[in-house]
Amino acid sequence: xxxxxxxxxxxxxxxxxxxxxxxxxxxxxxxxxxxxxxxxxxxxxxxxxxxxxxxxxxxxxxxxxxxxxxxxxxxxxxxxxxxxxxxxxxxxxxxxxxxxxxxxxxxxxxxxxxxxxxxxxxxxxxxxxxxxxxxxxxxxxxxxxxxxxxxxxxxxxxxxxxxxxxxxxxxxxxxxxxxxxxxxxxxxxxxxxxxxxxxxxxxxxxxxxxxxxxxxxxxxxxxxxxxxxxxxxxxxxxxxxxxxxxxxxxxxxxxxxxxxxxxxxxxxxxxxxxxxxxxxxxxxxxxxxxxxxxxxxxxxx
Length: 301
Fold this sequence. Notes:
By secondary structure, this protein is α/β, with parallel strands linked by helices. It has helices at residues 42-49, 66-69, 72-81, 97-104, 160-165, 171-179, 209-215, 232-238, 243-253, 271-279; strands at 4-10, 24-29, 32-36, 58-60, 88-91, 115-117, 124-128, 133-138, 146-151, 155-158, 181-182, 185-186, 191-194, 198-202, 220-224, 257-261, 285-288, 294-296. The strands form 4 sheets. It has a 7-stranded mixed β-sheet. Strand 11 (181-182) and strand 12 form a beta hairpin. Helix 9 crosses helix 10 (271-279). It is globular, with a radius of gyration of 21 Å.
């Protein structure tokens, strides 16, 4: 049975706090694991969350500020120490190639796993796997930054009443799915499009076209909300979003489940982020993330 869930490893911006680790998020998508923005302490948080190096198939770094990438060294060395048996691919902004190399080879260790480096330098499709297409879009931050988006291909939902009306049953159901038609009855006559699931990951950024493109129609949107609305000027100056801005993006994009994260250490009341997000008009499912939280991807519509 496929598992699609987000494991939150850390939720702090810039510096860890007593209750929040640096960033880190593992998306389980069927048989694959995508690790996003492993900040300092990610390896320790993986242990606490029950996440193993063997769970990682891709590493996706949005940008090379320390709270999003300092954990790379430990994670990559753990992948090698545990001799992960499958290929691991790393995505990151091409302009940060020197940072990736420094982190990958920051200390001496025995390299046993070949990690494929696949840097990002443009918007659009990045990779294709069995059950998703990985896309990226440029964000607006003081250093080059990209967000990521997983899109499952659309499928078909068979409609029992239409199958019965056309006298199709048993093995013929599988046959019409494979062949597209049987005896003048097409797949369109007995089914409807089942929209594929979509996941979006938006970190450090001001409002920009990339934010909206990534969020559009997402079933699960993980998005930074570093500041509260009263500090919007700080957010703009430092290349971040407020809770209200993030919620309006989600509202306008038709997001089903909004996950706010990447909180400034200046705030001690997480419920205020939820209050401001609701005040901005988002009425879908809403989670103010905390470390070690598990969030299932919403079931298909």
